[in-house]
Amino acid sequence: MSTEDTTDAEARERLIDLAAEFYDQFAAGEIPRMELPTRTKSNIEYDPEKKVWVYGDRKSTRTANSVSGARKLLKASYTIDFLANQLDEDRSSTLRELYYLSESWNNEEAQFNSQDESNNLVEDLEIVTGATREDFHMRPEESGAKVMGPLLIREQTQRGDRDIHCQKDVGQGGYQIPNDTDTIEFLDNDAEFVMCVETGGMRDRLVENGFDDEYDCLVVHLGGQPARATRRLTKRLHDELDLPVVVFCDGDPWSYRIYGSVAYGSIKSAHLSEYLATPEAEYVGIRPQDIVDYDLPTDPLSDSDVNALESELDDPRFQTEFWEEQIELQLDIGKKAEQQALASRGLDFVTDTYLPERLDEMGVL
């Protein structure tokens, strides 16, 4: 799914067309309905050709033939009306605001019971219309993700275009990634590769040590499980600027899944995998082998860690010789380690030794 060329007018038209379908079904004496892929884990499959998660062929139908189903379509209709008006007025709002705003709707049955309910409905509308929530001018709460490195961009804002150099025009905190990264134009680029970093502490270490400057690296802070905007920008940096992407995470099963979401997409956003995922992204560390080779400070694996590692052995994203060896080694040693554990060998070890050697082995440097 690629929606980067969807205009406001097109997004609005798709929403109105969906509402018109409900009206036509009423007019024809039919029970209103909305069909979309079944959004369960059993209907998510890994596409080995595209190397991302996608929805399978199973469909489910939202229909007004029950009180519960009628409420869902009523809420969809009110939400469509709100989003269409928002686009018409060139306004925007957050997912949280949509949840609270529904309390002002004149039909109590249309109001949301929780933010999860409103979030899921927006995702349904993405799937049915083929547009994204960014196309609807909907944004999440700020993720706080930042970029630091030799890149000159032009960002479209409500107050006009701004040219920003992601090293020279920002403080040590870096350039904050906007919600809709398709409003960014790449003007000039001196970067050699992109490094996505899981933790803020390690991101700060790289910047403080001048890693971005010395190696012409774009350091992208993931902030834990990365927001959609972060993954979209990473994909654009790879596809449009032909930059290699590497992912630097903690050495535990949950961090491997963070890498997986950057490279292959997540189950939750399977309808957007081709829009967000970068299958060419490589994992730079921390690896279980690093725990052994560098005698890193560790924590023992918990039962949930072990279960997660065992499930990853059955995950198509991790069924490679590299991942199988690393996961089996981690299960054998029963340990996990954080990125900051590298500081046990000195504050400069990660930027002077660990990353340069690893990136050289990978052919990135």
From TrEMBL:
Its job: Relaxes both positive and negative superturns and exhibits a strong decatenase activity.
Q: Please report the stretch or stretches of sequence annotated as the Type II DNA topoisomerase VI subunit A all-beta domain.
A: 141-190
Which reaction is the catalytic activity of this chain? ATP-dependent breakage, passage and rejoining of double-stranded DNA
- One Pfam entry for this protein is Topo_VI_alpha
Q: Subunit comment for this entry?
A: Homodimer. Heterotetramer of two Top6A and two Top6B chains.
Its family remark reads:
Belongs to the TOP6A family.
Give the cofactors, semicolon-separated: Mg(2+)
Starting at the broadest rank, the lineage of the source organism is: Archaea, Methanobacteriati, Methanobacteriota, Stenosarchaea group, Halobacteria
Entry EC no(s): 5.6.2.2
The Topoisomerase 6 subunit A/Spo11 TOPRIM domain extends over: 193-359
Under the heading NCBIfam families, the entry gives: PRK04342.1-1 (NF003332)
- Which biological processes are named by the entry's GO terms? DNA replication; DNA topological change
Annotated InterPro entries: Spo11/TopoVI_A, Spo11/TopoVI_A_N, Spo11/TopoVI_A_sf, Topo_VI_alpha, TopoVI_A, TOPRIM_Topo6A/Spo11, WH-like_DNA-bd_sf
Q: Which gene encodes it?
A: top6A
Q: What is the protein name for this chain?
A: Type 2 DNA topoisomerase 6 subunit A
Q: Which sites bind Mg(2+)? A: E198, D250
